[in-house]
Amino acid sequence: MRSYRTLFRTPEFTPFLLSFAAHAAAQTIGGLALGTQVFRATGSPLLSAVSMFGPQLAQVLGAAFLLSGADRLRPRAALTGLALAFAAGTAVLALPGLPVGAVFAVVLAQGLIASVGGGVRAGLLNDILPKEGYVLGRSVFNMLWGLMQVAGFATGGALLALLTPRTCLLLAAALYALSALGTRLGLTARPPRFSGRPSVSATWRTNALLWSSRPRRLTYLGLWIPNGLVVGCDSLFVSYAPGAAGTLFACGALGMFVGDVTVARLVPTAWRPRLAVPLRLLLATPYLFFFLRPGVALSAVAAAVAAVGFAASLVLQERLMSLTPDDLAGQALGLHFVGMSTLQGIGAAVAGTLAQLTSPATAMTLLAAGSVTVTLTLAALGRHEERRSAVPGTRTRPGDVPEPAAAD
Questions:
Q1: Under a CB-based contact definition with an 8 Å cutoff, are residues 320 and 269 in contact?
Q2: What is the pTM of this model?
Q3: How confident is the model at residue 28 (pLDDT cuts 50, 70, 90)?
């Protein structure tokens, strides 16, 4: 499946995409409003960054205890309930006089319930589309996420100039409710992908199975760590340029959109694995120059160029699916999204801490250097694995397919 026309003719794809659009808009506008509200109240880059990306930190608990639900819950009911829970939580965040401690309690609760949502959504996309259409469909979701960020951050920045952060949070709550309505009315009821009830033991057992393969481990680490460190850079936009954070976020989202379109639509399938390392290096390199403290215009260009590198996730998600049985696709993708979100939350916390001790510009440079180092290390490990598997008599476990050097 190489045609967008064919993709949008697939039953349920369009309503599924539209409900996700409302969810993404709510998350973007609500995150910017909350980060601004916390920064105005505390003046702390750390608390502002964690308020925007803190939900990701709680997702590690979901990965440990709840992730089996990605394949064991009815997708429509799970996504509808998730959106309604976010609507309620965001409305609570808009309450006047809410203490900062209570804000973070709500934020962490939202992250915990969101830990299942990524796997359910990705698994459902895998069910709606044929295998050959997954990368194209995933890229459309990524592009839409980028467009919603461009529109959401631009709109959110404009709204924050006119309205209070609490009013913007109420708007985000309404968008979450709209997403729930679209999911409930636009999708058909499907049975769970895997029999049995969600449980802690099932979550641990399947996670252990997914992690037992060396190629999957390298793929997961490539998806998680470089991405998380660069998102830590992004989390400092509010403290780096308080009056232009919406512009920087919007330019980053535009770069992400360009990268996804290019990789999914224009790059031949056979070439994709070769792009994983260059794209991840591109993701971090522009931030190495932030120690020079560029102005808003140059910072916006750097953010846009760097964000093209987020398209590396398409390449690595495709590889992850090639290494994973179909009946575990939801939890495998859920583990990816939870791990990625958790590392993004950790990246935001580390970035905020470094910014408190030094400056936002210095913190961005240090995190970018860390991302480059991790990418090069994973590439070296991939080449070592390829050489090891090529030695006569070397034994590998089932599913432990050697990792191509170019894929890391």
A1: no
A2: 0.65
A3: confident
C-alpha span between 178 and 176 (Å, rounded) = 5
Query: Distance between CA 60 and CA 254 in Å, rounded?
Result: 29
Q: What pLDDT shows up at residue 383?
A: 76
Q: What is the pLDDT of residue 399?
A: 44
Taken as a whole, the chain contains a residue count of: 408
Q: Using alpha carbons, list the distances in angstroms from residue 339 to 122, 200, 207, 347.
A: 14, 17, 11, 12
CB 232 within 8 A of CB 360: no
- Beta strand ranges found along 68-227 (DSSP E): none
Lowest mean pLDDT among 103-107, 171-175, 393-397: 393-397
CA nearest neighbour of 17 among 121, 113, 116: 121
Please provide the DSSP assignment of 244-309 as one string.
THHHHHHHHHHHHHHHHHIIIIIS-GGGGGGGHHHHHHHHHGGGGGGGG---HHHHHHHHHHHHGG
Q: Environment class of residue 35 by beta-carbon count within 10 Å: exposed (0-12), middle (13-18) or buried (19+)? A: buried
Q: How far apart are CA 144 and CA 158, in angstroms?
A: 20
Cα–Cα–Cα angle for 341, 329, 223, rounded to 5 degrees = 35
Token pair in block for residue 348: 């935001």
For 352-407, what is the HEC assignment? HHHHHHCCHHHHHHHHHHHHHHHHHHHHHHHHHHHHHHHCCCCCCCCCCCCCCHHH
Query: Average pLDDT of 294-315?
Result: 92
pLDDT of residue 239: 86
